[in-house]
Amino acid sequence: MDQRYVVGRSTSGIRFNVIVAASFMNEIQFDLIRRYPRNIFRIAMGALLLAVVAYFLIKQIEYFSTTHLIIFTLGGLYYLLMGLGINPITVWGKAYIKVSQSIIAIKPSMFSKENSFDWTNIKEAQIKVTGIRFLFNQGEPYELDFGKLDEESIQELKQAVIAISKEKGIKLG
């Protein structure tokens, strides 16, 4: 089967990975942790803070305590990473939505646990303006909120859920 892998970035900075198959959608994944564009000002601020720390260490000036220098170093590294477009929060965890032919996996924030649902256990998918509500054969319903997605990603997610629901015979509401 012919497959191509598409990596994109939406206008709001949400990074999305889509694996598209020739005849059907294989897997779609949205990274919910915000990516930042390159920013020269943040790079300059980070480099300036690191240069100040290096200057005080080389000259052995004791105007600032060790605690201040550590804070300046961490601040400089933070601004430098943010300026390069790397979100330091990704070190601690991930937040994503994965939709495949067999499951839908949702991890809404990096501190929450992953909720994974098998399509065979879903009775109905109610697609609304603010989110998608999944009703299961047994258990509590689950609400997937669109709050962290941009319009392009929301449409892509809706299309994937509709396509898989129709294929699996799941009622759409």
Overview of this structure, please?
With 173 residues, the protein is of the alpha+beta class. It folds into two domains: 3-35 and 90-167, Pleckstrin-homology domain (PH domain)/Phosphotyrosine-binding domain (PTB) (PH-domain like, Roll); 40-86. The protein has three helices and ten strands, in the order E-E-E-H-H-E-E-E-E-E-E-H-E. The strands form two sheets. The chain has a six-stranded antiparallel beta sheet with strand order 1-2-3-4-5-6, covered by helices on one side. The protein has a four-stranded mixed beta sheet with strand order 9-8-7-10, with helices on one face. A hairpin with a 3-residue loop joins strand 7 (122-127) and strand 8 (131-136). It is elongated. It starts with a strand and ends with a strand. This is YcxB-like protein domain-containing protein.
Index terms:
173 residues; alpha+beta; PH-domain like; four-stranded mixed beta sheet; 10 strands
